[in-house]
Write a structure and sequence with these properties.
2 copies of one chain form a homodimer. By secondary structure, the first copy, chain A, is mainly α. Chain A contains 6 helices and 2 strands. In chain A, strands 1-2 form a two-stranded antiparallel sheet. In chain A, strand 1 (56-61) and strand 2 form a beta hairpin. Chain A is elongated, with a radius of gyration of 19 Å. The relative contact order of chain A is 0.11. Chain A binds a DNA duplex through residues 5, 7-10, 24-26, 38-42, 44-49, 62-65.
DNA sequence: TCGTATCGATTACGTCTGTAGTCGGAGAAT
DNA sequence: ATTCTCCGACTACAGACGTAATCGATACGA
């Protein structure tokens, strides 16, 4: 619901917390993927901003904080997918599908899987 | 190819130029959708930034410039779709499809259309 | 020819983002 | 009790973004 945008850097933090939570700031820093080699202060700044955006929450445990997501990954993913579809495809999903299909981004396995999903949905 | 990001505001300008080009800055301003009620200087700033990003180009015609896209809408759309899929779905399209399917974002008409597309692709 | 409207360029400025340093307080070690 | 260390909070700062004013040159109307 809280519709502040989550930036790319912030998303990297969210991914860590979605995988495991609650975690301390130090824990989060330790779990950063290799290509995101941030200093601890940077991680803390990002955590503060996510707190301000109400995307995460923290609970004091003695002297330190444990952070956990407030918004679910699924909600976020839905929100962002919708944003893309709204921005580029007039809010309709089909043009995105058609576009990707045209771009040959679908493997044979994908196609089989999609057919299976469609069958399920029809029942 | 030129991979500078196009911002939301800039995208509104691109959409106008994709629909019709070349246009002067004043033309572009006149075609803004109602909810984007920008001043002419704002439009010109955005055009300059798009020029700097090499997303558009301009040609002098006497005292004024005519602006036209350098990147195609399809290329942009492909790029942004890929970006979303990379960011949120590990670079694979299927999870996006499955996600949207779960969210019931597909109408019956969509499903029929998708089946048709799949048939086409298989041949 | 002289003002005036116009155009592109330059400058402005607050917010957001990416990245990080510093400070003050609370625990831990001695 | 005193020092050292670690934590969260605050501050910093450059670049991008949204939005716009101003300036200098130019062309058109009078």
């Amino acid at each position: 619901m809280s519709s502040e945008r989550i930036s790319d850097a912030e998303l990297a933090i969210m991914e860590i917390l979605w995988e495991q939570a609650p975690l301390t700031a130090t824990d989060v820093a330790a779990r950063l993927p290799d290509e995101r080699d941030w200093s601890l202060p940077t991680v803390k700044t990002l955590l503060s901003r996510l707190l301000a955006k109400e995307a995460i929450e923290h609970r004091a445990e003695g002297r330190r904080f444990f952070y956990a997501p407030r918004i679910g990954r699924d909600d976020y993913v839905t929100h962002e997918s919708k944003r893309l579809v709204d921005r580029l495809f007039g809010g309709r999903f089909m043009p995105l599908f058609a576009h990707l299909a045209e771009q040959d981004k679908l493997s044979d396995a994908d196609i089989t899987e999609i057919e299976r999903l469609l069958q399920e949905m029809k029942s």
